[in-house]
Design a protein that fits this description.
Oligomer: single chain
Order of helices and strands: EHEHHEEHHEEHHHEHHHEHHEHEH
Strand content: 5-15%
Shape: globular
Distance between the termini: 65 Å
Largest sheet: 4 strands, parallel
Strand order of the largest sheet: 2-1-3-5
Number of domains: 2
Length: about 325
């Protein structure tokens, strides 16, 4: 049986878990290709114009998997992984939106309802009903998830050592160790952004590699401990409703306080409501801390040269500021 997993949204956070789970059940896992302009165009045509870019991209990936003739497409309904916090409504309604808007998808979408108290979503009870659809036993589901949980924990541990989500995936799934990155100019950037914005090459236009090629060290929220991120929000009277938005905001506050972080870049996709709130909070607080902050808002029309020019100017400004302070000291 061939199970399709779109290379979009939380693929960049949970793929090691999902891939291992299905393969241990004896399924063949098929992932869609990297996001291209053609794929995005297909997703745009299949989406309402008001929806955000990541969802348009997701639709393009689902269409590609349907064309590939997979038996099922795995598209879980992500509801909550923290008590009292939730995912964006688009995530919660995503399986229904795809099933009833994309031709041929209605009978092919597997959508377990994911509700957990932590990032670990490997509770077998969440997947039993899906297992019945696949014709496997509850025991098969339990045993497959047990192995998948170990792989995912290894993936997260490797991420917390400072490696990107893509590097950690290659390590745990393929045994490929990432190359050591050169850091020549002594600048460290805190890069804020959801994993599906930061690691989709079409959305971010490879911003991590661009920064690294400039000799910049990059830190992202998934490289940080969840408990520490949570603690950074203790001063808030009321936290945000959305868990991954809280992760980003916690990382942002840590970046502001950390003297080892020289500046912050927020990558956000046009049309993201939660990000508009996070961006405004960071703009206000970055002025208070005197730390350089820049927002890069991308949509399907954003140009690559525009991005390159902005990050080069931002990094150059920080470098000049640092070298001036060192000379004056």
């Amino acid at each position: 049986m061939r199970i399709g997993i779109p290379r979009a949204l939380l693929y960049y956070y949970y793929y090691p878990l999902w891939k291992t789970f299905f393969e241990k059940l004896g399924c063949e896992v098929v992932i869609s290709g990297k996001t291209t302009i053609d794929l995005l165009d297909k997703g745009i045509k299949a989406s309402v114009s008001e929806i955000c870019v990541p969802i348009k991209i997701l639709n393009g990936h689902v269409l590609e998997l349907l064309e590939a003739g997979v038996d099922y497409i795995f598209l879980p309904r992500m509801m909550s992984i923290r008590k009292g916090q939730f995912f964006c409504p688009k995530f919660m309604g995503l399986p229904d939106m795809v099933r009833y808007s994309l031709p041929g998808a209605k009978e092919k979408v597997l959508f377990p309802n994911i509700k957990s108290l932590s990032d670990d979503i490997s509770d077998e009870k969440l997947y039993y009903d899906m297992g019945k659809t696949l014709g496997v036993t509850d025991k098969d589901v339990r045993e497959s998830l047990s192995g998948a949980r170990k792989v995912w924990n290894k993936f997260r541990s490797f991420s917390k050592k400072g490696y990107t989500a893509l590097e950690a995936m290659e390590y745990v799934l393929e045994g490929k160790l990432p190359e050591k990155q050169a850091e020549d100019i002594g600048v460290t950037i805190g890069l804020m952004g959801y994993v599906y914005d930061v690691y989709d090459d079409l959305v971010s236009m490879g911003i991590v590699d661009r920064l690294r090629n400039m000799g910049v060290k990059v830190m992202t929220f998934e490289m940080m401990d969840e408990t520490m991120l949570d603690r950074e929000l203790d001063h808030m009277k009321k936290r945000l409703f959305w868990t991954f938005s809280n992760k980003l905001l916690g990382a942002g506050y840590r970046f502001l306080k950390d003297e080892g972080i020289d500046g912050i870049i927020h990558v956000t996709a046009f049309g993201c409501g939660p990000d508009s709130l996070i961006g405004k909070l960071m703009e206000i607080d970055s002025e208070e801390y005197g730390k350089p902050f820049m927002t890069i808002r991308v949509d399907e029309h954003t140009g690559e040269n525009h991005l390159q020019t902005r990050i080069e100017a931002f990094v150059d400004m920080i470098y000049r500021k640092k070298t001036k302070c060192i000379k004056e000291a």
